[in-house]
Amino acid sequence: MQSVSRLDAGARLKHFIKRVADWQEVWTLRDAEGRAVSLAAAGKEAAPFWPHPAYASACAKAGWENCEPQPIELHAFMEQWLPDLAQGKQLAAVFPTPDSEGALLAPELVLQELVAECRESYGDDL
């Protein structure tokens, strides 16, 4: 976990895409009321996502200390979460760490990367 967390944001993005496609699951943080957390980055709101709950838990501090990792099934992430972020003009903060905000991407780009990885791994049977 520590060696992956030390990778640069681009390498963590690649790791995220591969693991999420393999495990069919994405993780975010939710507060006590069940709301997904967000962070302000690049002048926009960004929703953080991780490939595993341990990485999300490591970031559950500094304003997120009352948050818990929450799984998102991959199809729901691709069909609901990412389009909702795009509609709200928010970014996806892919794989932030306690020391880095992660790769800040348009949700459409995250979706493209996931579709490409899923097709490579599973063919057209997404």
What CATH calls the topology is Trna Endonuclease, Chain: A, domain 1
- SSE order in H/E notation? HHEEEHEHEEH
The major β-sheet equals: 4 strands, mixed
Residues in β-strands, percent: 15-25%
Query: What is the number of independent domains?
Result: 1
Work out the helicity level: 40-55%
The value of Rg in angstroms is 14 Å
CATH class category label: Alpha Beta
How many beta-strand segments?
6
Strand order of the largest sheet: 2-3-5-6
Q: What would you give as the CATH superfamily? A: Uncharacterised protein PF11572, DUF3234
How many helices? 5
Polypeptide structure, described:
- With 126 residues, the protein is of the alpha+beta class.
- It has a single domain, classed as Uncharacterised protein PF11572, DUF3234 (Trna Endonuclease, Chain: A, domain 1), CATH 3.40.1350.
- It has helices at 2-5, 9-23, 53-58, 74-87, 107-122; strands at residues 25-30, 39-41, 44-49, 68-73, 91-94, 103-105.
- The strands form two sheets. Strands 2-3-5-6 form a four-stranded mixed β-sheet.
- A hairpin with an 8-residue loop joins strand 5 (91-94) and strand 6.
- Helix 4 packs antiparallel against helix 5.
Key features?
alpha+beta, Trna Endonuclease, Chain: A, domain 1, 4-stranded mixed sheet, two-stranded antiparallel ribbon, 6 strands
Quick summary of this structure?
The protein contains five helices and six strands; from the N terminus they run ααβββαβαββα.
